[in-house]
Structures are given as structure tokens and as C-alpha cells.
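Colleagues,

For the teaching module next term, I've prepared a clean inverse folding example: a structure given as C-alpha cells, and then the sequence designed for it. I'd like students to try predicting residues themselves before seeing the answer, so please don't circulate the second half yet.
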């Protein structure tokens, strides 16, 4: 019988790539989707007709229990979150509820449906993946960051992720559950939300190239990130749940670039000089910035055999080309139906 996976956040960037990957591995894939008529479900379905949908919300404990009871998954991937860092200052409580408490609700749903209690030794258990984030490192204490680097989150989002991370560890230690966190560094693709800086830049370049805009407004150009390709990172999620023992892993490329270097690469991929078009806007700076993030992915490489396959320049070119194609074909990136 096919193994069964349940993915929260199925309508997001990672949900789509993970579903694609698991379907290619022969899984029966279920996605948890919220809302009565979520337009992102139809966008996802255009790409992935074989994904089955179960309704539920990370804010609603009962809905998660029902979803686990109905799907009877072998693996649960918790990708659902408020994931845009600036929004976490504007809606800090909602971020805590979805991104933080949502992890507790999902773990509880699994625990209750599996009949796990203190002292019981779970057998045939559901394996759980939590989407932890390099934002937990925040104001970094060392570079590069590995699985033992301390956390100093700099946003309500980072704090909520740290809660989910420790809770996942705690359920592993308290109940013997196969529950792991992937501490993923920034990963991008043509399916990235338009609010994140890589996609904002690739869309900005495409609009300028096609004469649809004359400038691109950005915030802090000096921040540095370790950017990789989302398609590579979902393979790591799957590998973590196939490992013989439940452990946490850092996933990133080990190389970091500044937003300024990202901008240079993206404009140059379209044959444009960025300095003619980019305007910096202090209103786009954050209340507290994460200045730099750079992964040490050695553990994932040696224990999981995981390697990224797409370089920074290839990623930027892929996104710029995709957005030029999207806009040339009359697609509207603000409409949920236009996912490349
Ligand atoms: P994304 O594109 O923003 O997707 C977020 C998903 O969460 C969407 O499917 C959204 O569904 C869902 N969601 C929001 N509120 C929900 C709720 N109350 N109940 C259930 N689902 C809800 O994020 P992503 O880039 O794919 O990232 C996936 C996960 O990895 C997130 O947890 C993110 O924080 C984490 N992460 C991402 C990165 C990265 O660089 N991409 C790095 C580290 C960690 P709707 O369609 O209903 O809005
Ligand atoms: O693309 P960003 O918004 O991503 P950020 O904040 O690093 O968070 C992403 O990666 C995390 C992993 O580390 C995930 F957990 C999280 O869910 C999300 O996927 O911003 C990247 C950098 C920041 O330093 C920001 O200040 O780009 C800088 N930046 C400069 N101008 C900008 C802009 N960011 C955005 N979004 N928009 C700008 O105009």
C-alpha cells in the first residue's frame, strides 16, 4: 500500500514542491487547506491534480484531530504558518497562534490519534516534520550556524518558530515520538510569494524590462542571506523522516550573499544596470533586522547525503526568466491563479 503523507501549508511554495516530490516517490498525498473557498487550492490543483484535500486550520484543534483521523497518515509535514517576517510585527498575536501554537495543536492531534500518553511506547507511529527556520538564530552568535548554535530571534515570527522548535524536541523527548525539525535557511523559486525579497526583485526586474515600471523600491540592501532553491530543500524534509533516528538538521547552501548582490545579479540577468532603477526606502526597514545568516549544512550532507543542486546565480536567473515569461504572457502575479 502507498505511504500516506499529510502536508499543512499545501497551498504555499514549499507545500507544492513537497507534494510534487512525494507524489514522484509513490506517496498518497493529502493537503490540509483552510477556508471555504481558498483560491490557492485551485492554483495548487492546476499543478498537482493528484493531491487530496482535507479541510482544517492550525487555529482549530478539532479540525486537526479530524484531519489526522481521516487521512491516517504515515508522515505529517507541518509547513503551515504566517511566514512573512514583517507581518509578524503587525499581527504578532496571530503569528504566535498559527506559527507557534499551531505546532502544539498538530503535535497534540498526532499524539491523541495515536493513543500516545506518558510512559507508553509508541509503535507504528506517525512521523512528524516541523518547518523550523534560520530566523531563530536572529542576532547570530557564530557564523556559519549549525544545529548547536544558540537562538536569538529578532521578530515575533522568529520567537514563534523557536517555540515550535523546542516543542517538537520536547514531544520527541517526552513521548518518544518521531518528531524532527528542519532548520531551513531561505529558499526561493518562481513560486515564491511576491512579498519576499527575491521574488519582489525578480518581478521588479521583469516589469522594468517590459516597460511596465521604471523603479524598484527596496529596504535594507546590506542584509545577507543564504539563499537556495526550494525544490532542493523539500528533498531534505523527506530524507529527515526516512532517517533511522529522529534528529534535527540545518539545511542551507553554506554561501551567503547580500540583498545588493541579489539585485545586481537579477538586473544583470536581464541585461539591465540596477543602479538606474533601485530606490531604497527607509519605510521598508524592519524594527529589528537579522543582519546575516549562513548555514553549516555538514550534518545533513554526511548523515542524509543531502546536497543542493542549484547555485545562487542559477536560482536568480531562473526566477527572472520565469517572471519575464509570466508577465509577457499577460499573467498577473497578484492573482492567485497565475503560479508558474
Ligand atoms: P508560504 O508560501 O508563505 O506558505 C504558508 C502556508 O501556510 C500557506 O499554504 C498558507 O495557506 C498556510 N497557512 C497560513 N495560515 C494557516 C492556518 N491558520 N492554518 C493552516 N495553514 C495556514 O511559506 P513557504 O515559503 O512555503 O514556507 C513553508 C514553511 O517553512 C513555513 O512554515 C515557513 O515559515 C517555513 N520556512 C520557510 C522558509 C523559506 O525560506 N521559504 C525558510 C524556513 C522556514 P493559505 O493558502 O490558507 O494562506
Ligand atoms: O525575503 P525576506 O522577506 O525573507 P526573510 O525575512 O529572511 O524570511 C524568509 O526566510 C526565513 C528563513 O530565514 C523564513 F523563515 C521566513 O518564513 C521567510 O521565508 O527578506 C530577506 C532580507 C531581509 O533582511 C530584509 O530586510 O531582505 C531584506 N529586504 C530588503 N528590502 C527586503 C526588502 N525584504 C523584503 N521582503 N522586501 C524588501 O523590499
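(Answer key — instructors only)
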Amino acid at each position: 500500500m502507498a505511504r500516506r503523507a499529510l502536508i499543512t501549508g499545501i497551498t504555499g511554495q514549499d507545500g507544492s514542491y513537497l507534494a510534487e516530490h512525494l507524489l514522484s516517490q509513490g506517496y498518497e498525498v493529502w493537503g490540509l487547506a483552510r477556508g471555504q473557498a481558498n483560491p490557492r487550492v485551485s492554483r495548487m490543483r492546476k499543478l498537482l491534480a493528484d493531491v487530496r484535500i482535507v479541510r482544517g486550520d492550525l487555529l482549530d484543534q478539532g479540525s486537526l484531530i479530524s484531519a489526522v483521523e481521516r487521512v491516517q497518515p504515515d508522515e505529517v509535514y507541518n509547513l503551515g504558518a504566517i511566514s512573512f517576517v514583517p507581518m509578524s510585527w503587525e499581527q504578532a498575536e496571530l503569528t504566535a497562534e498559527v506559527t507557534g501554537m499551531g505546532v502544539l495543536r498538530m503535535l497534540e492531534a498526532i499524539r491523541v490519534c495515536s493513543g500516545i500518553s506518558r510512559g507508553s511506547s509508541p509503535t507504528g507511529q506517525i512521523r512528524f516534520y516541523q518547518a523550523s527556520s534560520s530566523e531563530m538564530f536572529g542576532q547570530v552568535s557564530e557564523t556559519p550556524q549549525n544545529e548547536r548554535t544558540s537562538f536569538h530571534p529578532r521578530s515575533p515570527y522568529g520567537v514563534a518558530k523557536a517555540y515550535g522548535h523546542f516543542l517538537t524536541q520536547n514531544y520527541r523527548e517526552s513521548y518518544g515520538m518521531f518528531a524532527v525539525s528542519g532548520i531551513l535557511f531561505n529558499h526561493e523559486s518562481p513560486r515564491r510569494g511576491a512579498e519576499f525579497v527575491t521574488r519582489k526583485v525578480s518581478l521588479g526586474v521583469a516589469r522594468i524590462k517590459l516597460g511596465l515600471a521604471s523603479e524598484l523600491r527596496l529596504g535594507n540592501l546590506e542584509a545577507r542571506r543564504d539563499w537556495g532553491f526550494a525544490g532542493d530543500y523539500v528533498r531534505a524534509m523527506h530524507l529527515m523522516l526516512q532517517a533511522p533516528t529522529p534528529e534535527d538538521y540545518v539545511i542551507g547552501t553554506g554561501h551567503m550573499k547580500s540583498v545588493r548582490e541579489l539585485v545586481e545579479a537579477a538586473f544583470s540577468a536581464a541585461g539591465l544596470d540596477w543602479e538606474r532603477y533601485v530606490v531604497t526606502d527607509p519605510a521598508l526597514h524592519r524594527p529589528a533586522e537579522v543582519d546575516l545568516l549562513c548555514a553549516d549544512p555538514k550534518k545533513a550532507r554526511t548523515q542524509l547525503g543531502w546536497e543542493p543542486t542549484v547555485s545562487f546565480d542559477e536560482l536568480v536567473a531562473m526566477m527572472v526568466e520565469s517572471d519575464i515569461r509570466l508577465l509577457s504572457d499577460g499573467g498577473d502575479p497578484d492573482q492567485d491563479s497565475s503560479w508558474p
